[in-house]
Design a protein that fits this description.
Elements (H helix, E strand, L loop, with lengths): L5 E6 L3 H12 L4 E7 L2 H11 L3 E4 L8 H10 L5 E6 L4 H9 L4 E4 L4 H12 L4 E2 L1 H4 L12 H11 L4 H8 L3 H15 L4 H10 L4
Parallel strand pairs: 1-2, 1-3, 3-4, 4-5, 5-6
Helix pairs in contact: 2-3, 7-9, 7-10, 8-9, 9-10
Length: 205
């Protein structure tokens, strides 16, 4: 009797890379790609539709991030395990991912054989984390931001004005200014743009 296939959803906004993942992993006899999507909202919808064993996702994508999706799936008590494959090798990203319930964290330059083995390990209930990143977690500075801080800094990073940010988050412009002041103070920055750079460099954004 053949072993049960490990069913995967792949979420990656770069079409060429998404197709490469699907093609290379499709050669593995025990892996089955059930959906391949290009943004976070579609990834969450695909998981809810197909109920895969593994969601293989990037961190930063249009719509929800890989970390956002993991938080949503954990809240829903979904049995799907989330694995992140990314270019972001900073400890701050890994800490946020682990806190969100992510089970695997690998870099995009990992060999496909290593990625396939990591998928099998996670599907069996284990964890798979790139060793070089894991070793930096213990020395990483604590993340001072909350989700509200992250939301306003991301919108500012995208060039949105205070009024636009207020409308997007259903807040008053004065409240947004206060939140920016708090985030800047937490990060020891001089202004909101520097705060965004500090947060991004540390993997907190």
């Amino acid at each position: 009797m053949n072993a049960r296939l490990i069913r995967l959803v792949i979420a990656e906004d770069q079409a060429m890379l998404r197709d490469a993942f699907a093609s290379l992993l499709g050669f593995e006899p025990d892996l089955e790609i059930v959906a391949s999507v290009g943004d976070g909202d579609s990834a969450l919808e695909a998981v809810r539709t197909h109920h895969p064993d593994i969601l293989l996702t990037d961190i930063e994508m249009p719509g929800q991030s890989g970390i956002d999706i993991s938080i949503a799936l954990r809240a829903e008590k979904s049995p799907t395990h989330v694995m992140i494959v990314t270019t972001f090798g900073r400890a701050g990203y890994l800490k946020r991912a682990l806190n969100a319930g992510v089970r695997g964290y690998l870099l995009k330059d990992a060999p496909v054989g290593q990625l396939a083995d990591a998928i099998r390990k996670v599907a069996a209930g284990g964890r798979a984390i790139t060793r070089e990143i894991a070793e930096t977690v213990w020395e990483a500075a604590p993340d001072p931001l909350n989700e509200r801080d992250r939301a306003i800094l991301r919108l500012a990073e995208a060039g949105r004005s205070n009024r636009e940010i207020a409308e997007a988050l259903n807040l008053s412009p004065g409240t947004v200014r206060n939140y920016f002041s708090e985030a800047v103070q937490k990060l020891g920055a001089r202004n909101r743009m520097e705060a965004g750079r500090i947060a991004r460099q540390n993997g907190w954004l």
